[in-house]
Amino acid sequence: MAVSIGKPWPLGSSLVGGGVNFSVAAPEATKVELLLFASGSANEPNQIIELTPRHRSGDYWHVEVQGVGIGCCYGYRVHGPVSAAGRGFHPTKVLLDPCARAISGWDVYDRGLATGDHDNSAHCLKAVVTERDHFDFNSHPRPRHDWRETVIYELHPGGFSRDLSSPASPEHRGTFLGLIDALPYLQSLGITAIELLPSMAFDPADAPDGRQNYWGYSPLSWFAPHHGYVCGDEPLAGRQQLRQLVAACHDHGLEVFVDVVYNHTTEGSSQGPCLSWRGFADRLYYHQSADGIYQDVSGCGNSIAANHPLAVQLIIESMRCWALELGIDGFRFDLGAALTRGAGLTPLDQPPLFEAMESDPELADIKLVGEPWDCGGLYRLADFPAQRVGTWNGRFRDDLRRFWKGDDNTSWAMAQRLIASPDLYGGEPAAAGKSIHFVTAHDGFTLNDLVSYNGKHNLANGEDNRDGDSHNNSWNHGVEGPSTDPAINTLRQRQMRNMLCTLLLSAGTPMLLMGDEVHRSQGGNNNCWCQNNPLGWMHWQPDDDGLALKLFVQRLLRLRQQLLPWLDPERPTNLSHQWHGVDIDKPDWASWSHCLAWSINSPTQGPRLWCGMNAYYKAMHFDLPPTASGWQRVIDTGLPADEDLPAQPPGWRPPSAPLESRSLMLLVASDIELKL
């Protein structure tokens, strides 16, 4: 087996003529050993190649090995100084290449043995050499939906098809291929993009004893697809199966976004395992104080120093891998605000990571979305320091919930959210793609539970109900949990429709949560991160109420697409927005007000759309602005299922509109043809 110096670029393992080039960053190391294994389950390396100073270029250690190729399993041992406190390098640990595009050894892996001083070579994970082919965009081009038309559906890549009643074939359940089997369902809803919860390799064992990390916010690699979502045990299959999923989505007109966790890793606090980053460059990859104490704004024990050039380079390479090699169309940055912090956790107005990704031509056509907060209290919404990055608008979620719950001081805030939150974006409506608004997300109650529980019920998580947010702005409408009272269930049904209508008739980019359209419940658990069971899975056997809500959502999404010319805040200047109350042109912004109405008007044709929103506990009578063609009643959530959003909207002649308590009505000019 011939060994030569190799080259520092590209990072990771890459094929060269007759062999493989290996390169990894370890700036403060004094010696690096490349370990080659016969298989992922091998308990010791069959060859150890010591890299001398001749194999070093700047911060990078590299070597070319002839006679190996795709499928080769390998790891590293890295030597270097250790502080008096015992911090520093861990040469007894076999390290996973931070650029590993596939991982093997899950059958022998032991997370616990990655701590302490003992050798873990018999129980380590190994990187696997793969191809680096680009995705076939010629055969499966990106859909490239305009932000104005985009509707995101957030789902769990395994939990969506895990249930026995899912459309997935038995061998595909809970995998990327299982998602392909379920694509007709997703396409039928009328969404334009799916957003996958973390799909990069994570450690399921990063959880309390007896539980499993299910959501995946515990990254082990930023390059390899998670093995748990792959059919079979072949580590090389992950990349190909993910490509198959993306290709099928593109063929169905769906974009694919991935929730990425670049703010922390599964290595946890300084007492956590040494698996990868920590063993190569602990002081450079993680935010630390001058005395080496980890600075944590992720809530998970560590925070990636995304201001450091090595971390920036690794993250950009990861994004290129997923965007160019695997075909992903967009990224959602978990705790995105954490990635804008510099030395000493100082918030930066020009964070290096976002400057690098926004100036990268290979990422120029990728959609970017970030959480504008972190666990250190930083919240950057309109002032998120990146031009192309949209942000999750948590204020939209909170204000919408509070309005329909009937809280005081909510009418003005609700009005602002309807028109793309100009009060939050410097006086102007948020530009297309800048505000991602939602009612529910994976982190929190489902829509069904939002109207069924006053408090969280997370005992199944094993933390005595301490975990999960305690401030949900939820309301059980009289009974905690499921109810047999017809009046309560009718009101819950109406409230779910009210919130969905408000979400999808608002300006901005909406996001729906997996299963909300069929009453998926988590039994009041608002933090199902460790619930890989029916509690956290998609619900595939809805009852009649669930089926009725699904039909409502399908029609509502079709309606949204047809009304975009009027709902878009960047609509033609000849259209104007007008606020009303129960009286025309007299909105009531008082603290006690629970009613709101608005219309979109044309100077030549008069009002074209009118919407009334009554969050009061009594029915209210709204006067209507006259329109030349007359009105058609498109939505009335106060009516029974199928009448609340009928396929053929009936005409509406009266000069006023009676709205039931806690209901919404939408009227559209009769000369606007709608296909629902």
Q: How would you summarize what this structure contains?
A:
With 676 residues, the chain is α/β, with parallel strands linked by helices. It is built from eleven helices and 26 strands.
Could you please describe the fold and organization of this structure?
With 676 residues, the protein is α/β, with parallel strands linked by helices. The protein contains eleven helices and 26 strands. It has helices at 176-181, 183-189, 237-251, 277-285, 309-325, 352-358, 394-405, 411-418, 447-450, 486-504, 544-567, and strands at 3-4, 12-16, 19-25, 31-37, 47-51, 56-57, 60-66, 73-79, 103-104, 126-128, 152-155, 193-196, 255-260, 330-333, 367-370, 389-392, 435-438, 509-513, 576-580, 595-602, 606-614, 620-623, 631-636, 651-652, 656-659, 663-669. Strands 11-12-13-14-15-16-17-18 form an eight-stranded parallel β-barrel. The protein has a six-stranded antiparallel beta sheet with strand order 19-20-21-26-23-24, with helices on one face. The radius of gyration is 27 Å and the shape is elongated. The model has no long low-confidence stretch (mean pLDDT 96).
